[in-house]
Amino acid sequence: MAALRYFFSLLMIPVTFVAAIASGLAFLAAYIPPEESGTIAFAGLAMPAILLVNVLILVYWAIQKRKWAFLPAAAILWNISFLLSIFQFHFSTPASPENTSFRIATYNVRGFRGWDKQNTQFPITDYLAEQSADIVCFQEYWNSPKMPSDSLCQLLHLPYYKAKYLPGYPHSGSVIFSKYPIIHSGQIPLGVTQNDAMWADIQIENQTFRVISCHLQTTNFSQKRKELVPSELYNNDLNQIHSTFRDVLSTLEKNFKIRAQQADLIRHVIDTTTYPVIVCGDFNDTPASYTYHRIKGDLTDGFRKCGNGYGYTFRGLRNLLRIDFILYSAPFYGLQYQSPDLPWSDHKPVLMELEIKPTH
Predict the structure, then answer these.
(1) How confident is the model over 145-157, as pLDDT tens digits?
(2) How do the domains of the chain map onto residue ranges?
(3) Where does the Endonuclease/exonuclease/phosphatase domain start and stop, copy by copy (predicted)?
């Protein structure tokens, strides 16, 4: 038994090094475009699993009271920023606004078709009206002839809206509803037919700011994972299994690259506008990704500012992913953040109360 423990201890040394190196690659995923390294992009996607492995290794070496514990500890500390982007604990009571404030919501509504295939316009608009949302950004919006945007304005109690539709899809796209006047709006062409982004310049009192709503390239993993069901793989030979995995990985890598290019387009709009900016939407990428960091730049992540608990927003894949965000620049200041688990979409809505701080 002692020999077995000794052998296992020796085996854990290279495992420790590999896990630490993997965490370093995952850290780099935020800064290296996927075009330069698909491997690093995959490491970023696997960040939660990599950090979990490092935690287990740290516990093992701590119990053994061996110096190797410093490697997993360092690996975890390297990625503390990622951990803070998915776990937050704020115990203080939400502050009351001292200046003008408003509530903004972003929600990928899945075409107003719930998982049970029922229309969800009424429960979604009722909920957001009850929450007194002043600005609402919908992604995967469907402008139904039976419930057009004008009718949703009334249900939301928001008199202004601008919608932008996908090429070839006159009823599908994104929309921004507002309690306040929308001065200008525009579309951000993303180069694909199923994803889109738009902006609207909104005026509150004497302050004009730009809201960007985006729905970036999907991962396609929900569709591809059907090919990875064990019962399906069992009936295939090794060549078919290898081909299936290669196809799934190739699709994921291609979409990493597309989202990175779209992030560059969004970043260009942020950098060239003269107004304060709020970016909302479904990035289809996690806080460990190049896409998230490219768009975020020096903006504030609302969840990190005033979120609580584990911050997932995608209701599939066992509630593991935070891919919907509200980011903002000065003079906005986050007061409250919430993302309730509602049954009307495969995403959760994200709502924030923002205060407009004086600029002088």
Answers:
(1) 888 999 999 999 9
(2) 2-78, 101-224+231-356
(3) 105-347
β-pair type (207-215, 300-301): unpaired
Q: Contact, 334 vs 352, CB < 8 A?
A: yes
Q: What is the dihedral of CA 283, 286, 291, 295, to 10 degrees?
A: 70
**Amino acid present at 227:** E
The DSSP secondary structure of 272-333, one letter per residue, reads H-SS-EEEEEE-SS-TTSHHHHHHHTTPEEHHHHH--EE---B-SGGG----EEEEE-TTEE
Q: What is the pLDDT of residues 179-222, one digit of tens each?
A: 999 999 999 999 877 899 999 999 999 999 999 999 999 875 55
Residue 78 CB burial class (10 angstroms; 0-12, 13-18, ≥19): middle
Count CB atoms within 10 A of the CB of residue 350: 27
Residue reference for tokens 């850290």 = 27
Q: Which CATH number fits domain 101-224+231-356: 3.60.10.10, 2.60.120.260, 2.40.40.20, 3.40.50.2300?
A: 3.60.10.10
d(CA 264, CA 188): 11
Which position has the token pair 């990985």? 249
d(CA 271, CA 116): 41
Q: Is residue 172 classed exposed, middle or buried when 0-12, 13-18 and 19+ CB atoms within 10 A define those classes?
A: middle
Q: How many residues does the chain have?
A: 360
Q: Which two tokens mark 287? A: 């806080």
3-state secondary structure of 217: coil
CB 285 within 8 A of CB 325: no
Query: In the prediction, which pLDDT does 5 show?
Result: 77
